[in-house]
Amino acid sequence: MKTLSFVKLDSCVLGEFNPLKAVSAAPLFTFSVGAHKIVVSNHMFMITLATVILVVLLFASLRSPKIIPKGIQNLIEMICVYLREQMARPVLGEHTDQFICFIWTIFFFVLSLNLLAMIPLDMIIYLVSGKPNHLSGDATANIWITGGLAIITFFTVHIAGIRKQGLWHYIANFAPKVPLLLVPFVYFLEVIGSFVRPFALAVRLFANMLAGHTLLAALLGLILIFKNYGVAFVSVTAIVAISFLELFVAFLQAYIFAFLSTVYISFSVSQEH
């Protein structure tokens, strides 16, 4: 009977443990606007928190600018200069200054969401208050959020191209110079490619962040399942190592998202794209 109770307990742990729970959206509260109910999730909260942190940090770094910057001002300026001179200018050339603010915004926003996802905010609040909550979450592991960012890039790319070349020239230059018989096929592929690019942007960021945090949750779950000191030691060691890798991935994915957005913009403002 005692063995049977342990089996039931382990079955309950296995049944309730879900590695995807760490990256799933959880509703926090709802409010009504007219006849519509709007659900605010933990991912929406993380987006708001990232925005507030960015605004506070940027205003703090710009409040008393110095010729020789120090502290947070030096860090932000160093990142901005690197993104402008080493990433954007070789690709955009003379158009760099026109689009660099958008590129900076995309990079810092994605980076902020990625870094906030690594902070177990809900666990910290639980340890302090003793009340369970779902405030923490990985917003960039939500395909709707990464898709929204990709759509912003999509419209920025094509609006930039239309403003630079004019609508009809932009459409006419959509396909490169090829033999006349191949124009319909190449044009069709280029149109499809223009929609595939933002899709790839969204899926790349979503998949990388989802995989990393799901793996961390699965390793943590092994401790709850096996209840063994050896397994706990191996799991904690692996979690620490993968957390450092996730920190690198957080910067890398923000850089890749900003870089690919830059490349797509450069395609649109060129005469043949």
Describe the protein.
The protein has 273 residues and is mainly α. The protein has one domain. It is 74% helix and 5% strand. The protein is built from 9 helices and 2 strands; from the N terminus they run H-E-E-H-H-H-H-H-H-H-H. A two-stranded antiparallel ribbon has the order 1-2. Helix 4 (96-116) packs antiparallel against helix 9. The model is unreliable at 1-15 (pLDDT under 50).
Question: Concise description?
Answer:
This protein has about 270 residues and is mostly helical. The protein has nine helices and two strands. The chain has helices at about 1-15, 40-60, 70-90, 95-115, 120-130, 145-165, 165-170, 185-225, 230-270; strands spanning about 25-35, 35-40.
Helix and strand topology:
Elements: H1 2-16, E1 27-33, E2 36-41, H2 42-62, H3 71-92, H4 96-116, H5 121-129, H6 143-165, H7 167-172, H8 183-226, H9 229-269
Antiparallel strand pairs: 1-2
Helix pairs in contact: 2-3, 2-4, 3-4, 3-9, 4-9, 6-8, 6-9, 8-9
Percent of sequence in beta strands: under 5%
- Computed structural class: mainly alpha
> Fraction of residues in helices?
over 70%
How far do the termini sit from each other?
Answer: 72 Å
Strand order of the largest sheet: 1-2
Largest sheet: 2 strands, antiparallel
Task: Work out the radius of gyration.
Answer: 23 Å
- Any idea how many domains? 1
What string gives the helices and strands in order?
HEEHHHHHHHH
